[in-house]
Amino acid sequence: MSDTRETLVNLAEDAMCTRGFGGFSYADIARDAGISKASIHHHFPSKQDLGLAVLVRYGERLVEQLALIGKSSRSGGQALAAIIDLYRAKAGSGGMLCLCAALSADAHAIDARARDALRRINNLVAAAIEEVLIAGRRDRSISVGGDPRSEAESILAMLQGAQLMTRVTGEPATFDAATAVLAARIYRT
Amino acid sequence: MSDTRETLVNLAEDAMCTRGFGGFSYADIARDAGISKASIHHHFPSKQDLGLAVLVRYGERLVEQLALIGKSSRSGGQALAAIIDLYRAKAGSGGMLCLCAALSADAHAIDARARDALRRINNLVAAAIEEVLIAGRRDRSISVGGDPRSEAESILAMLQGAQLMTRVTGEPATFDAATAVLAARIYRT
DNA sequence: GTCTATAATGAGATAGAC
DNA sequence: GTCTATCTCATTATAGAC
């Protein structure tokens, strides 16, 4: 990927997580990237193309991040704590949302390709959390009462919802409060 | 409130829950209401005024709804089930979000008055859920392990997040899956 | 309270030169 | 690949007649 193209994807991802798909314009990222609006159209003919490119790269990186967390964690509890931190970091950066939460809220504004990608990424994250819960139950580092897959989907919903609530108060503490119950389920890391 | 004014608030609320604050225009609801764009400005000089009016009425109605649920429920479990249904109904109606989730996602686009109202309403709902949990713990109809206030905030986050996830798949079953763990904590209604 | 008309702005997108 | 210039359209908002 060329430098310019990567810069544009970076800026667009940041803008989407902060203000949503409808909340930024080519003019915005053109200014930040130091090029003209027309030049962006050379790399991404339509805004939908740009959105999809951001989403695809986000999915790839997430796979890597989740794999790394799984590999470097010495317990399910440690892995779950790392995943919570992933979402907390976004919420703490001026009330950002993870890309999935941001684009889900703007689902009406994105095309079918992007919605498909979104669905896949949500499934991917839920599956990763499920594996972490299974590991945590096995090594007794996480309290897992019910079906791991159901628990995983609830946890993903909670993490995305906690980001939404944090955006309203502007206080990172809001995220911690809304996820305290989840953190308390980790016996040890 | 005049008929026209109320119609406009109704249409705007619906539009906001479906497409967000930035996702509808005066032209949209003018068409639906059968009046001109300019006439809306007579009732609500700016779009921010309209948004705030919708939010204020939403808060008032929510207080009534939550009071009614508290009064008509014969157990904490029944009350919690009714609250879950409240959020499920929106998610099931074509992937709508509750007004709080919708405007939280668009927090960058609304003014300080609206963000204040949003904060108050989130607190109000969390407090109502907390009371329900306390009642449910007392009458042994809900499993409540930790601090009721923390549990309440987690539940609110989970409900809003489940609506986000449901919007992506378009399947009401997604909401049920993401809240199955919560529903399972209700011993009886 | 409603209308038509219009302003003022910003959006995504295209053409064509360099 | 990048630019300037332009197009087309939608947006919020206002002016002023009825």
- Please tell me how large the radius of gyration of chain A is: 18 Å
Helical content class of chain A: over 70%
Low-confidence stretches of chain A: none
The general outline of chain A is elongated
- Record field, number of beta strands of chain A: 0
Please provide the ordered H/E string of secondary-structure elements of chain A: HHHHHHHHH
- Examine the secondary-structure arrangement and name the CATH architecture of the domain at 55-183 in chain A: Orthogonal Bundle
Mean pLDDT of chain A: 98
Oligomer: homodimer
Major interchain interface with per-chain residue totals = A-B, 46 and 46 residues
Helix segment count of chain A? 9
CATH topology of the domain at 55-183 in chain A: Tetracycline Repressor, domain 2
CATH top level assignment of the domain at 55-183 in chain A:
Mainly Alpha
The CATH homologous superfamily name of the domain at 55-183 in chain A equals Tetracycline Repressor, domain 2
**Proportion of beta-strand residues of chain A:** under 5%
Span between termini of chain A:
38 Å
Q: For the report, how would you describe the main beta sheet of chain A?
A: none
